[in-house]
Each structure stands twice: as structure tokens, then as C-alpha cells.
TrEMBL record:
Keywords: Catecholamine biosynthesis, Decarboxylase, Lyase, Pyridoxal phosphate. Homodimer. Belongs to the group II decarboxylase family. The lineage of its organism: Eukaryota, Metazoa, Chordata, Craniata, Vertebrata. GO terms for molecular function: aromatic-L-amino-acid decarboxylase activity; pyridoxal phosphate binding. Pathway: Catecholamine biosynthesis; dopamine biosynthesis; dopamine from L-tyrosine: step 2/2. It is an enzyme of class 4 (lyase). Its EC number is 4.1.1.28. This is Aromatic-L-amino-acid decarboxylase. It comes from Homo sapiens.
Length: 368
């Protein structure tokens, strides 16, 4: 599919989507199919030749739609709301075209910075305490997760890591295993985000959390609020006396993809101290490092050979091509990966000439 056909088919797809949304009330909300209905209706193996666009759209109507539960139907009252809107659909199209992977600031600066600013906007709309905001050098901040369950898991893992580090700093003789076997996780009996993947961490009552002795005390409690019931123990008066006046959780989460006309998946999570997250999940593979990561101006929620390092600096400063490094055993190596589907040999050759020119400059500077 070339750009010309993409323009034509894209317009047809927008028409199909608009017709679907406008006519969704007339579709049966829950499908009348049995398990395994789909397999007999499609080939047993991928076709050798492509279908026409028209045939694909026809198959969507004949094969796919009969098995779709229409979550946006006005007769859908199951599970939970799923937000959607025409602007969100258009935004998805733009995101698909740009196609950046925002795993660090350097991977796409606008991706990281827009998320940071928008999460501050949303936090202000919710009237969250200022401690949860990133602006004006605040210690807090927001980050988008895939779901509330994911945010809950992230909060528990971050809390666990924070407690382990604090206790080991105070008592170096304590091993991680010794601390882990004492840790507990509290959850409301209405919460569905039960984290069974934490191994020795178990669910218990809040009172038990405070009875495990010196290994776990009120300083070790991280409160995460992710829904009306999941956070009920935090807001219930009978539990407040255990917190000695603590008024806010350490993290807060809700799902814009349920309430704010944003397509799935967009789960907004804020923390009072973002270093609790970056400290628990920070990763430092060589290819993710960049010159601004320690500047203090950006938030990264993940977590040599001097000549080659100098060459990489020059290449990325020139901005004609973009490379990242890796470590191959003890060598600092510049990675040259063919990434775009539109790359031709001429692009590679021009890049190689550019690299050679900059390498010559680096070697000349070294000799001088």
C-alpha cells in the first residue's frame, strides 16, 4: 500500500468507523456465537496472496462483527465503562503514524514531556494535593500505566523496594530474603487487584500490618488508592487512627479510559515522590543512556571506549542520523540498526559517509 492508496483507504476506514458508531444501537449488543465459531470461517493458514481492501472490509462485517461484544452500545451495562470519542480515534491514528516508543526522554522528548505536563493538568483538574504534581521542581509526578491493576502492581513493587532499602540501610545485617518474608500487603475486601505475583508478600488485614513487629512499622506503609472500594480502608474512619493523622495516600490512580473519552489503555497514576518509582524500576542498559538523563530537567520512569563515546556524541549532536550504543563485552560499540521499512542502500551509504567524516574529525582531535 503506497501513500496514495493509504489516503483513499484511510478515508474509507473513517467512513466505516463513523457508520459503525452511528449505527451501533442497531447491532445486537452481545454476540450469538459459540466458542470456536471463527476458525471454520477463515483459512487454516495465512494466504499466499493478499486480499483486496474491499474483501477485508466485507470479512469484518461477515466474520468479525458477529462475534463482537459492542462495548459502546447504549445497551451495554456489563463490566465497566470504556471511553471513546472521535478526537481520541484521530489521536490514535496520529500516534500510529509517528510510532515512537517512549521508553526514555531521548527516545522521543515530546512523548515524555507531553505526558508529564498533561498529567499535571489532569492532577489539577482532580484537585490532587500539590505533592502529586511534577511542576516547579516538585518531587511528585504522574505517569500513564496500562491499567489500574498495573498501577497497583507498580505501587506495591515500589513500596516493597523502598522498605527493603530503608531497612537494610538501618540494619545492614538484614538480608532481602529476611525482610521479604515479613512484608505484607493490605487490600480492601472489595479490591479486585490481588497481587499474587509478589511471592512472599501476602494480603492481610491492616491491623496485622502493624503487628508484625519492628520489621514493619508505620513508616513502611505505602497507601495506594486506585478505586472507590480499593481505597476504602484508607478513607474509612475506623482505620484512620492507625495512621496518626496521615491524610493522603502515597500514590493515586484512576482510569481516563473509563471516564474521560480516551481510548483504552490510559490509566493515570500519580506518586508523591517519583524517585520511589524510578529507584525501584530504574534500568541502565547502555542503549538507553543519554546526555540529559542526569540533568534533573526530565523524569525517567524506568529506571568505555572514549573515542567511540566522543564519536557517538558528535553523531547525535549533528542530528543527521541517530544512533545508540551498547556494550559488547568490554567494548563500547555504536549500534547501527536498520529500523525504517523505507530504508534503501543509498540511505545506508550516506550514513556511512557521515560516520566516516565525523570519525576522522574525532581521531584528528585525539592526535592533537
Amino acid at each position: 500500500m503506497n501513500a496514495s492508496e493509504f489516503r483513499r483507504r484511510g478515508k474509507e476506514m473513517v467512513d466505516y468507523m463513523a457508520n459503525y458508531m452511528e449505527g451501533i444501537e442497531g447491532r445486537q449488543v452481545y454476540p450469538d456465537v459459540e466458542p470456536g465459531y471463527l476458525r471454520p470461517l477463515i483459512p487454516a493458514a495465512a494466504p499466499q496472496e493478499p486480499d483486496t481492501f474491499e474483501d477485508i472490509i466485507n470479512d469484518v462485517e461477515k466474520i468479525i462483527m458477529p462475534g463482537v461484544t459492542h462495548w459502546h452500545s447504549p445497551y451495554f451495562f456489563a463490566y465497566f465503562p470504556t471511553a471513546s470519542s472521535y478526537p481520541a480515534m484521530l489521536a490514535d491514528m496520529l500516534c500510529g503514524a509517528i510510532g515512537c516508543i517512549g521508553f526514555s526522554w531521548a527516545a522521543s522528548p515530546a512523548c515524555t514531556e507531553l505526558e508529564t505536563v498533561m498529567m499535571d493538568w489532569l492532577g489539577k483538574m482532580l484537585e490532587l494535593p500539590k505533592a502529586f504534581l511534577n511542576e516547579k521542581a516538585g518531587e511528585g509526578g504522574g505517569v500513564i500505566q496500562g491499567s489500574a491493576s498495573e498501577a497497583t502492581l507498580v505501587a506495591l513493587l515500589a513500596a516493597r523496594t523502598k522498605v527493603i532499602h530503608r531497612l537494610q540501610a538501618a540494619s545492614p545485617e538484614l538480608t532481602q530474603a529476611a525482610i521479604m518474608e515479613k512484608l505484607v500487603a493490605y487490600s480492601s475486601d472489595q479490591a479486585i487487584q490481588m497481587v499474587a505475583t509478589l511471592g512472599t508478600t501476602t494480603c492481610c488485614s491492616f491491623d496485622n500490618l502493624l503487628e508484625v513487629g519492628p520489621i514493619c512499622n508505620k513508616e513502611d506503609i505505602w497507601l495506594h488508592v486506585d478505586a472507590a472500594y480499593a481505597g476504602s480502608a484508607f478513607i474509612c474512619p475506623e482505620f484512620r487512627h492507625l495512621l496518626n493523622g496521615v491524610e493522603f495516600a502515597d500514590s493515586f490512580n484512576f482510569n481516563p479510559h473509563k471516564w474521560l473519552l480516551v481510548n483504552f489503555d490510559c490509566s493515570a497514576m500519580w506518586v508523591k515522590k517519583r524517585t520511589d518509582l524510578t529507584g525501584a524500576f530504574r534500568l541502565d542498559p547502555t542503549y538507553l543512556k543519554h546526555s540529559h538523563q542526569d540533568s534533573g530537567l526530565i523524569t525517567d520512569y524506568r529506571g568505555s571506549n572514549k573515542v567511540n563515546e566522543a564519536l557517538l556524541q558528535r553523531i547525535n549532536s549533528a542530528k543527521k542520523i541517530h544512533l545508540v550504543p551498547c556494550h559488547l563485552r568490554d567494548k563500547f560499540v555504536l549500534r547501527f540498526a536498520i529500523c525504517s521499512r523505507t530504508v534503501e542502500s543509498a540511505h545506508v551509504q550516506r550514513a556511512w559517509e557521515h560516520i566516516k567524516e565525523l570519525a576522522a574529525d574525532v581521531l584528528r582531535a585525539e592526535r592533537e
